[in-house]
Backbone:
């Protein structure tokens, strides 16, 4: 009989799929939600065949730091890639095991490690609801300016999942507030395009440069002007606050249409 995941587990699976992450993470979540009678240990063997790596992950899951350090001294690599870009740290992150994460990080697991076209632990944590995963990785060598498999900085990952608290954590750890995606769009411009005006307000207060434009010459002011919000929504009040800040910084509304704008970048 197949065990069906709980609603909370389905929510986690939906998160990974919504992020556009590769199927391995979805599989991990399904395993974590349906595991019984050692099925977990069987499934991990689909990604690793090296018994030393399997024991390394098991020691981390048991928070057996002594055995973990011994295995590393004997040659076990906490950054070994398995099938489909799997790493020990990705495995325990997928199982939401914070103690195992800390254990692996303590013996050299790299939170920024990823295969080409895949996600890293830090890029997954940037979109997670629980900020603790992100904090753990950032406090143990995680790069706040790392990029996901789509080459977008982590601030965008947090933005697309509506994780303002994660944005705050990333900035507190030194993330570049004016980092841009491949279209030259900064996170504050993108936030306005998504009507996330509380985030726009926060970013402006933290020093985001409102004068920057993307490759289509679209500015934050132009994006705000063209992304209106109905009065019945909370975002309306935040948009009004954003407009006030921009006007205080010299912006005069209405702003002109971007010159020779590339519509794909606007």
Residues:
């Amino acid at each position: 009989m197949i065990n069906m995941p709980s609603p909370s587990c389905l929510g986690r699976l939906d998160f990974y799929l919504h992020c556009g992450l590769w199927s391995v993470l979805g599989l991990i979540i399904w395993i974590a939600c349906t595991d019984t009678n050692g099925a977990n240990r069987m499934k991990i063997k689909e990604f690793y065949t090296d018994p030393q790596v399997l024991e390394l992950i098991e020691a981390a899951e048991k928070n057996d730091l002594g055995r973990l350090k011994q295995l590393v001294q004997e040659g076990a690599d906490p950054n070994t890639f398995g099938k489909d870009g799997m790493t020990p740290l990705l495995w325990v992150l997928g199982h939401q095991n914070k103690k195992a994460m800390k254990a692996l990080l303590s013996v050299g697991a790299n939170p920024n490690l990823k295969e080409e076209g895949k996600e890293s632990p830090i890029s997954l944590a940037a979109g997670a609801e629980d900020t603790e995963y992100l904090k753990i990785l950032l406090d143990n060598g995680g790069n706040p300016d790392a990029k996901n498999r789509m080459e977008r900085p982590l601030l965008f990952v947090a933005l697309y999942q509506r994780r303002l608290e994660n944005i705050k954590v990333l900035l507190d750890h030194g993330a570049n507030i004016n980092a841009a995606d491949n279209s030259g769009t900064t996170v504050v411009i993108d936030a306005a395009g998504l009507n996330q005006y509380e985030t726009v307000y926060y970013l402006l207060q933290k020093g985001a440069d409102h004068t920057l434009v993307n490759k289509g010459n679209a500015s934050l002011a132009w994006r705000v002007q063209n992304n209106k919000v109905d009065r019945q929504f909370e975002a309306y009040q935040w948009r009004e606050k954003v407009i006030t800040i921009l006007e205080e910084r010299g912006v005069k509304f209405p702003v002109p249409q971007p010159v020779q704008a590339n519509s794909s970048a606007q």
Confidence is low (pLDDT under 50) at residues 1-24, 29-39.
